[in-house]
Each structure stands twice: as structure tokens, then as C-alpha cells.
Amino acid sequence: MNDVSQTTAMPTLGAKVGRYRWRVCAMLLAATTINYIDRQVFGVLAPFLQDKIGWNEIEYGHIVTAFQAAYAIGLLCAGAVIDRFGTRIGYALAIGIWSLAAMSHSLATGVLGFAAARFALGLGESGNFPAAIKTVAEWFPQRERALAAGIFNSGSNIGAIAAPLLVPIVAATWGWQAAFLFTGALSATWLIVWLLTYRTPDNQPRLSAAERAYIGHEPPGPRSRMRWSQLLRYRQAWALVAAKFITDPIWWFFIFWLPKFLHASYGLSLLELGPPLIVIFVLADIGSITGGWLAGRLIKLGWSANRARKGAMLICALMIVPVIFAAKAHNLWLAVALVGLATAGHQGWSANVYTLASDMFPRFAVASVVGIGGFAGAVGGMLISTVIGLLLQATGSYVPVFAMAGFAYLFALIVVHLLVPRLQPARLDEPPPGNPPPSPIAAAE
């Protein structure tokens, strides 16, 4: 069987069709940047809050796990809520919750207080990526989706860069509580702008007719949402679940343990952490945009979506392998280079993995499918956070953790290919191949 090419025919509209969709992408970029600033504040301050408050590695692992548990729980319903109420209202609900949760960290005085604040933050932040991916599916044709996803996903790196730049200065000047209040206020500001400006393409009066036609080649789907139990009957959903479960924990490790790794291995102070983290996440930013651009470029050259997506994912996976040597690097900047290459590979990989959802599912199901994948990634993150905490408390060695990181992506790509060898779209109007139609009793549940 030949590869199923998914380069859906576009209307011929001339070279210029408008650029309003890229303004929407800029809004998603800003939201994701703020999302990661809010998320990263705790990681930047962790080595010094640990000394101040007195938690150990196991307790720190529990605090991180609280965020990831809430993130997983939130994703059980975030995608469905966004599919049901739409991106405008769904995104607003998510960012409103995480803005309040981010500021609530300033009230914490111990392990339980921080765990509660992290739990609330995880609930709110769980809505970001389902909402953003659904917005991309609404506003972009298929050949541009990976690039758009790569651009907004680069906000995670910009946020991770901004946090070590801003947080130490704010904390040193006004105290660590002010850092959480400041970043929470950024979220609230974005929320106001979003509600005032965002509309779907069908309802956006500033969108030209040509650009609306360019975007709107896919017919709208039904308004009723599909339950997870229905979506999980399809191998396409399990491909996203596997990719996220295997590789998301590695990104969680980079986000929450890199400052601690650099502090423990090279004795960096709060202000000295800034330059290495900035370099690492600048490289990640480049990887995010390049990984999304690469797949789109290959599609334009005539590759099928299957070959282009998996080819880009393979290149990104190979970039991560050298990180296995980072824990033994005797020079700070060698370690930074190895980790930076790995974060670039992860973000390029992630831009393409997110786009798998819109490659294989219609728009009305995208946020739910991304929610399922995000839930799997958060569960994997919970597991690895507990394991890392126990491992570091017992041995103090990062070697096995970096070894896991180095080979996880190649393994994940193999699993994805076995599940969807041709990246064929899920036919949600038909029973999955090999599965009998649901019984009337099951359908009524």
C-alpha cells in the first residue's frame, strides 16, 4: 500500500491571501510563553527555596508530582471542555485558573503549601496545549500547521529563557513571593486581550475573504464531542498517547531539574544560573521552529505527510542521543551544549507530535485527542518525577536519568510507526478496522 498523502488541495488564490492567521499564532505564542514563565518560576527558585524551607529530594519530587498529577487530571476534561465550548471560552477559563494559581504560590510557607499551589497551577495550565492545537487546526491549512505549532510551542522555550532572566532580579529585589505575583499578573493581562480580540475564522470580521477561503478548506465537524472511550478505539489516538507518554517526562525533567543539576554539578548561584539556562532554551527555541518548518518544507517538496512528519521526528530523535554524556561532562559549557542540543531536538519533535493530532483527526476532535496525549505525558511525568527524586536521594547521580533521555525518542518513534505506519486519518464515522460496532447498550452509556 502506498503512503497516504495528506497534502489536501488548496484553493488557488494567488500569492497573497492575507496574514491575519499569523496574528492568532502570535497570541498563542504569547500564551505559551507566559504558561512556561509561570511554570518555570518554581524550578528557577527551587535550589534556594529548598535551602530556605528545608525540603529534601523526595519531597521536591512530591511537589513536582503534585503539578503533574493535576495536569493529568485537568487533561481528562480540558480537551473535552474546549471542544464543547470553543477555543475562545475554553482558553479563557484555563488561563484564568492558572493566573490565580500562579499568584497563590506567594502564600505558601512549606511543602504542603507549595504542593497545593502547584496542583492548582497544573489544573489551569492543562488547557493551554489542547486549546492552542485546536486553534491552529481552525486557523491553518495542513501544510502550515507544523510550522504554526512550532512557532507557538517555541513559547515554552522563550518562557524558560525569560524566567531565569526575570525571576532572580525580581526575587532579589522584592522577595521570592513577588516573582510569583508578577508572573501571575502577566497571565491576567493576556486573558483580557484574548477575550477582547479573539474570534474563530468564520466570525472574525478582520479576516479577508481570500484568507478565509485559504483556511477553510476543511468542512466543519459536528458540534457534539466524542468521548475518550470512543477515540481510544483508534490506533491513531494510541500513537499520540505513546509518543507523549514516552517523551514528555524527559521535557519535565529538563524543566524542573536542570537548575538543580547545574547548581549541584557546577555550584552555580541563583544569578549565575541565568546564562546557561538561556543558552539551553535559545537552542530549544531554534529547534522548535526548525522542526516544524522542516516537515512543512518536505511536504512542499512532494513528500507525503507520513514521510515528512516521521522524517523530521527521526532527525530530532537523533539530536537527543548525545545527551547521555551530559552528566559526566567536566566542563559546564560542554554540558550546556549537550543539553541544549537535546532540548532543541525535543521541541522539534514536539512540534511534529502535536501536529499528528490534526493530521489524523478532524478539527472537532483535535483538542480531545491532544488532551488524551497530554494526560499520558503527564502520567509519565508523574512516574519519572517520583523515580528521579528517589534516585537522587539515594545516589546523587544524574547518569541514569540522562541515559533514559537519550534513547527515549528513538523508541517512541518506533512505537508510533508500528501503530500508524502510513499516518492514515481516523474515520470517526466508521467503526475502527477489526472492531465490531458498539452495542446499543454501550452506545447509550
From the structure above, extract its key features.
Growth Hormone, Chain: A, mainly alpha, 445 residues, disordered C terminus, 17 helices, globular, MFS_trans_sf, transmembrane helix
Task: Explain how this protein is built.
It is a multi-pass membrane protein. Residues 24-424 form the Major facilitator superfamily (MFS) profile domain. Keywords: Membrane, Transmembrane, Transmembrane helix. The chain crosses the membrane at residues 60-82, 89-117, 174-196, 237-258, 278-299, 311-327, 333-357, 364-392, 398-420. By secondary structure, the protein is mostly helical. It is globular, with a radius of gyration of 21 Å. The protein is built from 17 helices and no strands. The chain has a single domain (20-200, 209-215, 227-424), classed as Up-down Bundle (Growth Hormone, Chain: A). 55% of the residues are buried.
